[in-house]
Amino acid sequence: MLTQDPADPPNAPAPRTPRRQLDNEIAALFEEYRTLREEATQRVAARMQMIGFAGIISALLAVSNKITLNAPTVYVAIHVLVLAVLWLRGTNLAIQRIGRHLRGVEARINQLAAQAWHSPSDLLTWETSIQLGRQRVSGLPGWAGRLGGWHAS
Questions:
Q1: pLDDT tens profile 79-96
Q2: First and final CA of the chain: distance in angstroms?
């Protein structure tokens, strides 16, 4: 049985979904949105640290011996870089999965806000607009972005 929100006038018809319930759902989704944005930010920071770490290790290994094809450090440096690139791609794909979920949360919050507050404008658009911009990138940058996991097609 639906209960009427005390803020509504006493003779007003009961809404299909109580306003307070919508407000609570929006608040919970906002918290999920905030948490996911923080996780994406942390993954980007970790990605940048890994790039720097792999670059330093590879550079030190490459110059520790004279650079010849017979020096094992050159091959270790190449392997470190390859592993770092694979890890980078995996991290990028994980960030894209978070972004995909964030776009769903944005849509749900916007839908609930329109229903609860009779507001036609979107409250959240960041992740959706960023992904649309990524999808418009074409040519070599677009191909590299999709291959590297920076954006999904």
A1: 888 888 888 888 888 998
A2: 45
